[in-house]
UniProtKB/TrEMBL annotation:
Role played: tRNA nucleus export receptor which facilitates tRNA translocation across the nuclear pore complex.
Intracellular or extracellular location(s): Cytoplasm; Nucleus
Lineage of producing organism: Eukaryota, Sar, Stramenopiles, Ochrophyta, Bacillariophyta
GO cellular component: cytoplasm; nucleus
Protein name (database record): Exportin-T
């Protein structure tokens, strides 16, 4: 045995060092050993744990972990006695080991934690039946002394014992009170856990918690019995008492080790306060201790800057959190757990009164006392962690107090005197925290501030009647104070770089987003007060806004910018401009020199709010002069910072759209020439670069200025030519580059952007552009075709070309049709991606919708190649619905296949719907019409997706509608072949599909399929081939039994079904007949 253990130790050490072979060997040993638990016991005994050398810690940890995951803690129930003795031995071994101070001193943290977990599992399995006093036994083994008996010589040893005891209590919480899924996963890792074991473990956890709280277990039926002993004698009371003693006996501010122990105990206490009896959680001595500890937070490291004796600055290097601060934080968390305990309103009110937490906080923070122990007013005076925890506590208390206040008002008409005082105190604490110069502190109370605003808005009369004084309403005073705080807190720090990818600055931005939401709520509630405050803010700024401090002018502009978000009714910007004071502020801004401010974010904020409130510019075009000059100059499109240039390209477009053509008319020529100079600068000028994506905004802006401002046709043509001529020349130069095909990706990106620019420019003519402009756009389209032919292998070029064609269909009208075949040929030559299929399908659809039968010549030669590409993109050896000889593809492949095939279905359905069906029997395509019909029939009857089934069924319905009438231009043999196909293939397939048990007629999408099939049947009945053929064929099909029906449909009377189809006099009756057959109601 000794040799085996030595070998096992060696294997464990190698596995801990990262040897996969050793780990594999351990798994083998564990699986084949019948005495694995005994071996682990021996490993623990022979090394003595903590007294062993450090290299044996891995052995100890592995042995403990193996025992944790073994069947030792997986008994099936109380009748299973196999493991009782082993657990008793393990308990004795652990308690004996931790009783030795040297063992605790040398025991690594990870081993100590694992020991605590095993002890908790022993409690779970054996308490209280075979281990009746685990907490007393732990205390005795560790020789913990609480109170005044601890001497200076024994402080360290005593704290080691307390630390181990706290680990044990933490493990009890993790394994029994609030077990995580990870805990069960660890237990299952060695072998699957049976359902009986899982149920037993769950039952044991609940039983242990109940026994801890004083209930007894009936040994006969294992059921709980009502508690029979006083609360103070329960084990839960013992736990709470020991935690209280661990805190209170270590409150020595001069001894860091003792304060650390107290903080550690308070952290553990937090985990128990939420489930122990409320009387234990609110013990008077415990509460006093927690409140006292709130004031033990260490002061922050504050220095006075000699350059400004009035300001305090926090030292650049954050101090480590002191033990007293940690204790204060944990005690605040404890109090928060108590305050937020669930209970009815009356008990919660009594709890808040009895705790005295609000009075204590007011005293500690100096709001009602002379001594400040927890400074929530002056940044840096108290270590920040403690201030944050205090703010979170204040937020929690405020929410509870406000709830009580609202319930009292609703039930009694007015709150009690105590709650009235609590509201006043908690609100003062909250506002003080909100004004604190730290995002974590201020942000911690945003929730309660938001709730107060909701309550004040909803119960304004209550608030004013209860708290109003001296003729001034409480609500107005509160709003004015909040606005003052928000004005200060919404300011960005002086060193803020507006780098939103930086984590710290992103946190600052998220905090200010919360503050803006508060501001918007205030605007909705009291917009008159906001306007007055806004006026005061601007009055405090210097007359020259360009010289104002960045923080001050930026926050003032923020108030203006977000004012419209709070005004009602929507849209808020329009409602805001109905307020005369606000209109005056906007007008004053446009007449000021704020656009000359040196900070880029001030400029962008001004431009943003100008766009948001552009309605005033539409009404007063004279205000545009300064704004347009700034936007297009060195403070905008030619600003030194690339972010400003980029943003201004977009904002200029928004401005032109929002201000409208009438307001922009006088600026068209100047702006267009300026944009042209930026896009195509001459060699003599120095122009800062515009990124290609941003240049697209400028092209669209140019198009809108030319097409929507009422310019005469000649001027539109001349300006469009001036913009597009150098653009086309640059494209031609790139096409002539000898490196074009050697660096396809680079040149394809450039040329794709050039094609996009033409498409963006054409957006300006929403209607039919003048003939001269059409000629310019047509010439630009021709150069785009050259690009496509040169780089048709580039996906981005194909995509941008398709987008351009969609624009040209609108801009050029039928003038684009002669060009379409060449574009289609080039696009289809490299149609290799699903995106290509989508782009081409959309072009087909748009052409059919726009030009109907006139689109036939343009799409005739491309339809079959397109359908062939669709089929070629699908896997050759798979199908969406596998047959006996095909391979079922994985689900993601089925999804991709259906997505591709859907485009073919959609295109053919648009052809049929928009009177372009002549393309199906053209000279190019008539030979393949049968294949097309089979493709659509498969979509209607085989493809499982109901929307696609409906699309394909509609295709047959639309063709039947067009070709069923006398005088149809389609050749007779084509029409006859089509109707024969419907009778012989489509109708039987659809009947089998609709009547199959898998078809759910109650599903809306699937019912649409049935309804569209009813349309087809009705059109067949009314076709030129006559009602008699329909009746004959349907009767034969219904009565033949070839449909192989199952379910309810198989029980229907077929004669009655056949008669129903014969007698149907509308599409609706066809639907009802199919539905009745489907549900077997015709019997």
């Amino acid at each position: 045995m000794e040799a085996y253990l030595t070998q096992l130790e060696s294997i464990i050490q190698h596995a801990a060092a990262g040897s996969p072979e050793a780990s594999q060997q351990l798994d083998v040993e564990r699986s084949r050993s019948n005495c694995w638990n005994e071996a682990c016991f021996e490993l623990l005994r022979r090394r003595g744990w903590g007294t062993a050398a450090a290299q044996h810690d891995a052995i100890t940890f592995y042995a403990l972990t193996s025992l944790q995951r073994s069947s030792l803690f997986r008994s099936e129930g109380p009748s299973d006695n196999n493991w009782f003795n082993l657990r008793a031995q393990l308990r004795t071994l652990i308690l004996a080991t931790i009783a030795h101070v040297p063992a605790l001193q040398s025991m690594p943290s990870f081993v100590a934690t694992k020991v605590a977990v095993l002890l908790a599992l022993l409690v779970r399995e054996d308490y209280p039946t075979t281990w009746s006093s685990p907490f007393q036994d732990m205390s005795n083994s560790l020789s913990i002394q609480l109170g005044t008996n601890v001497t200076a010589d024994t402080i360290h040893a005593n704290n080691l014992g307390i630390s181990m005891y706290l680990r044990f209590l933490d493990a009890i919480s993790d394994e029994i009170v609030y077990p995580s899924t990870d805990a069960d996963q660890d237990e299952r890792s060695s072998a699957p856990m049976s359902a009986a074991t899982a149920q037993h473990i769950s039952h044991r956890r609940e039983s242990v918690k109940d026994v801890l709280r004083g209930f007894l277990i009936n040994q006969g039926n294992n059921e709980l019995v009502q508690a029979s002993k006083p609360l103070e004698q329960t084990d839960a009371a013992q736990i709470m008492g020991s935690l209280f003693q661990a805190i209170s006996s270590n409150l020595d501010e001069a001894n860091a080790e003792k304060l650390e122990t107290a903080g550690r105990a308070a952290m553990t206490l937090t985990r128990y306060l939420s489930w122990v009896d409320i009387q234990l959680a609110t013990n008077e001595s415990l509460i006093k201790c927690l409140l006292f500890c709130l004031g033990l937070a260490a002061p922050g490291n504050v220095r006075t800057d000699g350059a400004n004796d009035d300001d305090d600055a926090i030292d650049d290097e954050d101090d480590d959190t002191k033990p007293g601060t940690t204790l204060s934080v944990e005690c605040a968390n404890c109090l928060r757990e108590i305050v937020t305990r669930g209970m009815d309103e009356k008990k919660k009110e009594e709890l808040l009164i009895n705790l005295g937490v609000i009075d204590a906080l007011c005293s500690l923070t100096g709001l009602t006392g002379d001594r400040v122990q927890l400074d929530i007013t002056n940044s840096g005076r108290t270590q920040i962690d403690a201030v944050i925890a205090a703010a979170e506590l204040i937020n929690a208390i405020g929410l509870e107090v406000l709830t009580c206040w609202e319930i009292d008002c609703a039930q009694k008409g007015s709150p009690s005197q105590a709650i009235m005082l609590f509201v006043t105190q908690s609100l003062e604490l909250t506002l003080t925290c909100l004004n604190y110069d730290d995002v974590d502190v201020s942000g911690a109370v945003v929730e309660i501030i938001s709730r107060v605003l909701v309550s004040v808005e909803k119960h304004q009369a209550y608030w004013n009647n209860i708290y109003g004084s001296n003729g001034e309403t409480f609500c107005n005073k509160l709003i004015q104070r909040l606005l003052t705080i928000l004005h200060e807190r919404m300011k960005y720090p002086a060193d803020f770089e507006f780098d939103y990818e930086d984590d710290i600055e992103a946190e600052e931005e998220m905090y200010r987003t919360q503050l803006r939401k508060l501001y918007q709520r205030i605007v909705r509630f009291k917009h008159q007060l906001v306007l007055e405050f806004m006026r005061q803010c601007f009055s405090a700024l210097p007359q020259s806004l360009a010289a104002a401090a960045t923080q001050d002018v930026e926050v003032a502009l923020r108030f203006v910018h977000h004012y419209g978000e709070g005004r009602r009714p929507a849209p808020g910007a329009n409602s805001a401009l109905k307020d005369p004071p606000f209109r005056e502020i906007i007008m004053a801004l446009h007449l000021s020199n704020v656009s000359s401010h040196p900070h880029r974010e001030v400029l962008l904020l001004y431009y943003d709010l100008s766009v948001r409130y552009a309605k005033i510019l539409k009404e007063m075009p004279d205000l545009l002069s300064n704004l347009m000059g700034a936007l297009s100059g060195s403070q905008g499109l030619q600003h030194s910072h690339p972010r400003v240039r980029s943003r201004c390209c977009y904002l200029l477009l928004r401005m032109v759209k929002s201000a409208g053509g009438k307001a922009m008319r006088s600026y068209v020529e100047v702006v267009v020439q300026g944009i042209q100079g930026l896009l195509f600068p001459s060699e003599e000028t120095t122009v800062l670069p515009i990124e290609p994506n941003d240049a697209l905004y400028l092209f669209e802006t140019t198009g809108i200025l030319l097409g929507s401002t009422g310019l005469d046709d000649d001027l539109q043509q001349r300006c469009a030519t001036g913009v597009l001529t150098p653009h086309v020349q640059s494209i031609e130069q790139i096409l002539q580059s000898p490196d074009l095909h050697r660096d396809v990706d680079t040149y394809a990106e450039q040329l794709a952007m050039s094609i996009s620019a033409i498409a963006q420019l054409s957006k300006g003519w929403q209607g039919h552009p003048p003939p001269g402009v059409q000629n310019v756009l047509s010439a630009s389209t021709d150069i785009s075709l050259k690009v496509l032919l040169a780089l048709s292998a580039s996906p981005i070029v194909r995509n941008r070309t398709a987008v351009l064609l969609q624009r040209m269909i609108l801009s050029l009208g039928q003038g684009i049709l002669p060009k379409i075949p060449d574009f289609f040929q080039a696009l289809l030559s490299n149609c290799t991606l699903e995106d290509d299929v989508l782009d081409i399908s959309q072009l087909f659809n748009q052409l059919c919708i726009k030009f109907k039968e006139n689109a036939v010549p343009a799409i005739d030669s491309s339809l079959l190649p397109f359908l062939q590409k669709v089929l070629a993109l699908q896997l050759s050896e798979t199908s969406v619905v596998p047959s006996g000889n095909s391979v079922a593809p994985p689900p993601h492949v089925v999804t991709e296949q259906l997505s591709v095939r859907k485009q073919a279905f959609s295109t053919l359905q648009h052809i049929a719907t928009h009177n372009a069906s002549a393309v199906l029997y053209s000279e190019n395509n008539v030979g393949s019409i049968a294949d097309i019909l089979r493709l659509m029939n498969d979509g209607a009857t085989v493809v499982p997706e109901p929307v696609m089934k409906k699309t394909c069924t509609m295709f047959f319905g639309e063709l039947a509608r067009a070709w069923a009438q006398e005088g149809c231009p389609a050749p007779v043999h084509v029409r006859n072949g089509f109707f024969d196909f419907i009778y012989e293939v489509f109708v039987p397939g659809m009947l089998h599909c609709v009547l199959d048990s898998s078809f759910n007629v109650k599903d809306a999408n699937q019912y649409r399929v049935l309804a569209e099939f009813g349309v087809v049947l009705w059109l067949l009945k009314r076709s030129y081939r006559g009602n008699a053929e329909f009746n004959s064929r349907m009767t034969e099909l219904v009565r033949s039994g070839k449909l192989n029906l199952t379910g309810s449909a198989a029980n229907a009377c077929l004669d009655l079904i056949a008669n129903g189809f014969q007698n149907a006099s509308s599409e609706k009756e066809m639907d009802l007949c199919l539905k009745a057959w489907k549900e077997g109601k015709v019997q």
